[in-house]
Amino acid sequence: MGNPTEATEATEATEARIVARRSYAALWDVDGVIIDSGEQHRQAWEALAREQGFPYSDAAFWAGFGMRNSDSIPLMFGVDDPERIAPLSERKEAIYRDLMQREAVALPGARELLAALHAAGYRQALGSSAPIINIETIIRLLGIGPSLDGFVSGEHVAHGKPAPDIFLAGAALLGVAPARCVVFEDAPAGIAAARAGGMRCIAVRRAGQADAPGLETADRIVDSLRELTVADIDRLLGLSPA
Questions:
Q1: Is the predicted pLDDT of residue 152 greater than 50, yes or no?
Q2: What is the chain's percent helix, strand, coil content, to nearest 5?
Q3: Distances, alpha carbon 209 to alpha carbons 31, 38, 132, in Å
Q4: Quick one: pLDDT at residue 55?
Q5: Among residues 29, 71, 186, 234, which one is catalytic?
Q6: Interior CA angle at 79 toward 85 and 81, to 5°?
Q7: Is it true that domain 4-37+105-236 has CATH number 1.10.3720.10?
Q8: Pick the catalytic residue: 31, 71, 165, 234?
């Protein structure tokens, strides 16, 4: 039989670490990190361009990926009138949600790492440029609500990525200091936002694509979230020896 005292001490140490992690947080981008939705976004933008008679290119799409629609529409289509941008954005997102209802798939390891970090004591929120209704739809479709403490949309803040507003709002929502947050991102704009907010950042590569310029500024780059454990996040945030 094991030593009861040692078992008690181990249990107490585990509980103490869980309590300690409650003052740290994981902030998650959604598209390309939790859900494999890049192709659905691409199809939605291409369909919108076809409907409206705008020129479309994949290069322009990827250049604006991760930004709010109000920032990417001027880049992609040369439209800068807010009264035109709003209905274009709404139409694009309606096309996207229709695609996601049929095709939503979590990226490998996303649900598992979300659940593991939640069980370990980390506070967690989504921080996405996407509209509120898109974020709520993805939370519902993937069933990840129990692992989250909230979310921040680009609609909640004054400036989208690469400004740090979304992630700073996420940290404030969770009551965690920015320096105690790690951000999971796949887009250079999001990585720049995390850096500007004084946060650690892990970049997730897009399968089958070359690394976009700026990805290398993350603290760590992974091919899949399956590569990560709670211990990795602890080390990155200084909760255990490196």
A1: yes
A2: 55, 10, 35
A3: 15, 12, 28
A4: 94
A5: 29
A6: 55
A7: no
A8: 31
